[in-house]
From TrEMBL, chain A:
It is a peripheral membrane protein. This is NADH dehydrogenase [ubiquinone] 1 beta subcomplex subunit 9. It comes from the Eukaryota. Accessory subunit of the mitochondrial membrane respiratory chain NADH dehydrogenase (Complex I), that is believed to be not involved in catalysis. Complex I functions in the transfer of electrons from NADH to the respiratory chain. The immediate electron acceptor for the enzyme is believed to be ubiquinone. Keywords: Acetylation, Electron transport, Membrane, Mitochondrion, Mitochondrion inner membrane, Phosphoprotein, Respiratory chain, Transport. Mammalian complex I is composed of 45 different subunits. It holds the Pfam family Complex1_LYR. Residues 14-72 form the Complex 1 LYR protein domain.
From TrEMBL, chain B:
The keyword Translocase applies. This is NADH-ubiquinone oxidoreductase chain 5. InterPro entries: NADH_DH_su5_C, NADHpl_OxRdtase_5_subgr, ND/Mrp_TM, NU5C-like, Proton_antipo_N. Its main location: mitochondrion.
Length: 179, 605
């Protein structure tokens, strides 16, 4: 696998951080008022920080396992889920993003006639996408550091007349809410 | 002036007004519906329906309309008859008033929805089915309305059908209602065979009604009105948009089961077993729902469990043989419950879809009208003296305390009343009071009259409805007039106790102690473990039983053991027995000849 890509197994650091975040979220579900939450969140952070410099991996894994068990025993039965997150009340309410943009190519001509302006220009946009794809990929390959990309943000276009990388995927991204 | 003719004409005019947005678009392409036209249609129908109610109040005239008769077989005719008695004449304006307010609210709430006209048409179809159910004079027309509201409930709960949970919830609603429908059909079959009629007037019998059809009716009410045992669909139905929850699952559809029991009350009143079953079932439902509401964090679920609890209370009233009081509670409950849902919808929409009360707080200053009306609704729900809920709820608890009935039902109902106060105060404190916990930068305002006028109108109804209905309508049974002072104040004391406990618990949550999980809090938070137990046990047992029947009974036994394999194995045992005798020695064969000749000779004698 390329360096920096997601591997099949989580590292110890990733596991500890995931435990910390989910225990903070469940603590937030238990402690409704913010001052109380902040107090207990600081205590929890201190508990994690006390064992931060353990170099023995066996001991560190045992601590992690004990932490996971403590989390399981004291989790909240109805944890707070953000409305647009999976499991939330507004998740997947509108079926906007279930269809990719190439489905438009399969529309019947009578349906395409309902949006003549868009479909008149669509072929040109597709041609532009095909032509600029090689240049976008070349730019990304040159600009990515050796250990993999540090962040998910895409770089802008560097040369005159070039388009920013992955612009087609951004422009044809699905809507969140209907119009 | 012929009052009865006016009464009949105006009621039919109300129904016809509601049908116009359905029929007119079919007649011409220019007459398209919009949300505003549908809202105005319901408003007009409400204003028209006020007149028959006034006629009834001032002259006491009831009537019965028979429109057409379906001569199915010669000795069993099914007329399309509508009954304009106290129940239908009073519930029509109430249902139409509440629906008008909800539709006006929905013009703001669903404004960003691409199919808003279809939504309003669905709500209108639901309303028509509900009014058919209310006005029905025989069980056949009632069944038409019953199924109609069930179907519209399914379509409206799964309005956002992109969500898997919404589709599951709609299926749950339909299946649980279907289980209840079996009971209703059982009762209709018994009535058709023994009394040869489905009319409500002909339901009285001099001696005690057998318990089986009444069990069917109670099953129907359990399914439709979410009593304990068939209740999980009501909290799940909160997946639908808030106007749907306000109209269907608080004021109108869920009271259809109780309304059926009110209509068929003459049958129930003779059978004490059925009445006791209603009483105990209602008491259990009200306590169970109130227990589940204590630890809910979704504002719509709290109000849903509150509805379930009040429906249990209505069932308790039916069990006390007081159908008119149950109807009074239905009417007052419609006002404040619809208002609670509309207030919660206003809060949810202002917070951009946030439904969890852990992320609300301090909204009293930001949404003053909404939160004030929320407070009024909560006070009415708790039975605050002289608001709408007081007139019905207090009378129910007084009648319960002074009658010679089940102490267990009384204790459960009182406990549920105090739990009502507890979860109501918890909701109020977490939503309106205290510091703000909402995500910042939400530009919320109440400047839209489509939000404030329905809510204030329903608030006015919540305050005055109980007073007006009780002052104009005389009760048919004498309420208990004298009782000791502690008994009279029971409901009030229990509610005040609940409020005090809730305020103490709220103060406790603000101290720096982590709440421990107790068995009671886990029971309440997992909704009594009912859903996973029943949903998995019933389906696994039915499917495993079916698998056993198909594979073991039919395949293995009937097709194999009785048929070829059994025959083959019996042949095999016989031939195995016989081969031991084929030893090859002549002595054995000669002895077998001799034996058989001996047997033949001895048997012929």
């Amino acid at each position: 696998a390329a360096p920096g890509a997601m591997a099949a197994f989580l590292t110890h650091q990733q596991k500890v951080l995931r435990l910390y975040k989910k225990s903070l979220r469940h603590l937030e579900s238990w402690c409704i008022h913010r001052d109380k939450y902040r107090y207990f969140a600081c205590l929890l952070r201190d508990r994690f920080d006390k064992n931060k410099d353990v170099k023995d991996m066996v001991k560190a894994t045992e601590l992690l396992k004990a932490g996971e068990e403590e989390f399981w025993a004291s989790q909240h039965p109805q944890p707070y889920v953000f409305p647009d997150s999976p499991g939330g009340t507004s998740y997947e309410r509108y079926e906007m993003y279930k269809l990719p943009e190439w489905c438009l190519d399969f529309w019947h001509p009578s349906e395409k006639a309902m949006y003549p302006d868009y479909f008149a220009k669509r072929e040109q946009w597709k041609k532009l996408q095909r032509e600029s794809w090689e240049r976008e990929i070349k730019q990304l390959q040159e600009e990515t550091p050796a250990g993999g990309p540090r962040t998910e943000a895409l770089p802008p276009a560097r040369k005159e007349g070039h388009l920013p990388p992955m612009w087609w995927h951004h422009v044809t991204r699905p809507r969140e809410q209907p119009m | 002036m012929d009052l009865l003719l006016t009464l009949n004409t105006l009621m039919l005019l109300t129904l016809a007004t509601l049908l116009t947005p359905i029929i007119f678009p079919m007649l011409s392409d220019n007459l398209k519906n919009t949300p505003t036209t549908i809202t105005n249609t319901v408003k007009t129908a409400f204003l028209i329906s006020l007149l028959p109610m006034t006629i009834f109040i001032y002259s006491g005239s009831e009537s019965l309309i028979s429109l057409w008769e379906w001569k199915y077989i010669m000795n069993f005719k099914i007329p399309i008859s509508l009954k304009m008695d106290f129940y239908s004449l009073t519930f029509f304006p109430i249902a139409l008033f509440v629906s008008w307010s909800i539709l006006q609210f929905a013009t703001w709430y669903m404004a960003s929805d691409p199919h808003i006209t279809k939504f309003f048409t669905y709500l209108l179809l639901f309303l028509i089915a509900m009014l058919i159910l209310i006005a029905a004079n025989n069980l056949f027309i009632l069944f038409i309305g019953w199924e109609g509201v069930g179907i519209m409930s399914f379509l409206l709960i799964s309005w956002w059908h992109g969500r898997a949970e919404a589709n599951t919830a709609a299926l749950q609603a339909v299946l649980y209602n279907r289980v209840g429908d079996v009971g209703l059909i059982l009762c209709m079959a018994w009535l058709a065979s023994s009394m040869n009629t489905w009319e409500i007037q002909q339901l009285t019998s001099p001696h005690q009604t057998p318990t089986l059809p009444l069990l069917g009716l109670i099953l129907a009410a359990t399914g439709k009105s979410a009593q304990f045992g068939l209740h999980p669909w009501l909290p799940a139905a909160m997946e639908g948009p808030t106007p749907v929850s306000a109209l269907l699952h608080s004021s109108t559809m869920v009271v259809a089961g109780i309304f059926l029991l009110i209509r068929t009350h003459p049958l129930l009143s003779t059978n004490q077993t059925a009445l006791t079953l209603c009483l105990c079932l209602g008491a259990l439902s009200t306590l169970f729902a109130a227990t589940c509401a204590l630890t809910q964090n979704d504002i719509k679920k709290i109000i849903a469990f509150s509805t379930s609890s009040q429906l249990g209370l209505m069932m308790v009233t039916i069990g006390l043989n007081l159908p008119q009081l149950a109807f009074l509670h239905i009417s007052t409950h419609a006002f404040f419950k619809a208002m609670l849902f509309l207030c919660s919808g206003s809060i949810i929409h202002s917070l951009n879809g946030e439904q969890d009360i852990r992320k609300m707080g301090g909204l009293q200053k930001m949404l003053p009208t909404t939160t004030s009306c929320l407070t009024i609704g909560n006070l009415a729900l708790m039975g605050t003296p002289f608001l709408a809920g007081f007139y019905s709820k207090d009378q129910i608890i007084e009648s319960l305390s002074t009658s010679y009935l089940n102490t267990w039902a009384l204790v459960l109902t009182l406990l549920a009343t105090s739990f009502t106060a507890v979860y109501t105060i918890r909701m109020t404190v977490l939503v309106q009071a205290g510091f703000v916990r909402i995500p910042p930068l939400t530009p919320m305002n109440e400047n839209n009259p489509a939000v404030t006028s329905p809510i204030t109108r329903l608030a006015l109804g919540s305050i005055t409805a109980g007073f007006f209905i009780t002052s104009y309508i005389l009760p048919t049974k004498t309420p208990p007039m004298t009782m000791p002072m502690p008994i009279k104040l029971t409901a009030l004391i229990v509610t005040i106790l609940g409020i005090a406990i809730a305020l103490e618990l709220s103060k406790l949550t603000q101290t720096l102690i982590l709440t421990k999980q107790t068995h009671f809090s886990n029971f309440s938070a997992s909704l009594g473990y009912f859903n996973p137990l029943t949903h998995r046990l019933t389906s696994t047992s039915l499917l495993a039983g079916g698998q056993n029947i198909a594979s073991h009974l039919i395949d293995l036994s009937w097709y194999k053991l009785i048929g070829p394999e059994g025959l083959a194995s019996s042949q095999q045992t016989a031939s195995k027995l016989a081969t031991t005798l084929h030893s090859g020695s002549i002595k054995a064969y000669l002895s077998s000849f001799a034996l058989s000749i001996l047997i033949i000779l001895t048997s012929t004698y």
